Amino acid sequence: MKFIEIFCDGSSLGNPGYGGYCAILRYQKIDGCVEKIVCGACRNVTNNQMELLAVIEALKVLKTSCEIKLISDSKYVCDGIAKWIFNWIKKDFKGVKNTHLWKEYLLLSSKHKIHTEWVKGHSSHIENEKCDTIAREQATRLKEYDAKA
């Protein structure tokens, strides 16, 4: 299995409001390290939705089964993946917010081995800060676009 690191973050201008997400995918090739950035924006979303969407969009990029180290400043994402999702499945997601996103995550993650690592947000973690900046920029651009329309 190929090993890949995924750094991700989500942002929301209001909760709900304009949201942005970003994921940095990093893996080694024979000729060096490769990075790919996946980002985007949505309207009328929450911060947690954008945190999870960053993971989902990163997983969509992967073409083969991978061992993934997922680094996020979101306890919602890290604990959801590592701890809570098993019980959510048992109770068929009854009472769980963002069920459609969690079910999409389950489909996309099924062929991968994923380990989560929580990092404190806004603590000078280089990749987390970069993801945060890009996610906020994405949300701001969409808000400004709508304001002009």
Keywords for this entry:
149 residues, single chain, 4 helices, alpha/beta
Q: What does this 3D model show about the protein?
A:
The chain has 149 residues and is of the alpha/beta class. The protein has a single domain (2-148), classed as Ribonuclease H-like superfamily/Ribonuclease H (Nucleotidyltransferase, domain 5, 2-Layer Sandwich), CATH 3.30.420.10. 44% of the residues lie in helices and 36% in strands. It contains four helices and five strands, in the order βββαβααβα. The protein has helices at residues 47-61, 75-90, 99-109, 126-148; strands at 2-14, 17-29, 32-45, 66-72, 113-118. The protein has a five-stranded mixed beta sheet with strand order 3-2-1-4-5. Strand 2 (17-29) and strand 3 (32-45) form a beta hairpin. It starts with a strand and ends with a helix. The mean pLDDT is 96.
Q: Please state the structural category.
A: alpha/beta
Shape field: globular
**Roughly what is the average pLDDT, rounded to an integer?**
96
CATH architecture: 2-Layer Sandwich
What pattern of helices and strands is seen along the backbone? EEEHEHHEH
Major sheet, described briefly? 5 strands, mixed
How much helix is in the residues? 40-55%
Please tally the helical runs, counting DSSP H or I stretches of 4 or more residues. 4
What is the rounded Rg? Answer: 15 Å
Strand portion: 35-45%
